[in-house]
Amino acid sequence: MLLTVSSLLDPAELADVTSALDGLEWKDGTATAGRSARSVKQNLQADLRGRAGQDLHEQILRKLTGHPVVQAAARPKKFSRLVISQTADGGHYGNHTDNAIMGKGTGRLRTDISFTLFLSPPDSYEGGELVVDLPGYTQTLKPDAGDLVLYPSSSIHQVAPVTSGIRLACVGWIESLVRDSFQREILFDLENLRAKMRGQYPQGSAELLTLDKSIANLMRVWAET
Predict the structure, then answer these.
(1) Is 98 annotated among the ligand-binding residues?
(2) Is 57 annotated as a binding residue?
(3) CATH number of the domain that 22 lies in?
(4) Where does Fe cation bind (predicted)?
(5) pLDDT along the chain (225 residues), means of 10
(6) Same domain, 88 and 27
(7) Does 189 appear as a known binding residue?
(8) Is 149 helix (H, G, I), strand (E, B) or coil?
(9) Rounded-to-10 torsion of CA 216, 135, 174, 8
(10) pLDDT of residue 200
(11) How many independent structural domains does the chain possess?
(12) Same domain (yes/no): 162, 81
């Protein structure tokens, strides 16, 4: 499932994030690419190891983990460390597939879902679209600053060359409690139905209780804790 979550960061939060980036050091992005992706990656990444970088990392991660649509669509078990990239002057990230396993120790995770949080207004740079190959079609995305795109880590995807301006984005990966994408989509549909029904039926109604039970029981069957 490919999904755009609008305004994960509001304008004030976005301004705080982009302001914080001004004080960080930027390094060659190939250092974090897998072997096959290294040859097609040309960008810079913010060094988030200092206090300012850690604070920024935690600020964005709190927004991700606390967003109800992210929770409903991804059913997160673990989030990876975040990566903030800067792409300019013809930089790009050519066609690649994300590594199936990332991280070390307690941070080790299976990559089920990839995400890109766009930090630059789309009219401030040329090119730089996120291009995701899905069964039967290709999706090209360049949403507003503050928007988040969730997409399958199993897909072939790329960042098109940035021909002018600067593209800032935050990327990361999610290991889901529900490994199967088809099952996650069913649960997401049911969550959306439940949200709609809460405006139509009283709390404790037989309809809502039955739906609550069905969602909980599907999680019992499908979740990997």
Answers:
(1) yes
(2) no
(3) 2.60.120.620
(4) 96, 98, 157
(5) 97 97 93 74 96 97 98 98 97 96 96 98 98 96 98 98 98 98 98 97 97 98 96
(6) yes
(7) no
(8) strand
(9) -90
(10) 97
(11) 2
(12) yes
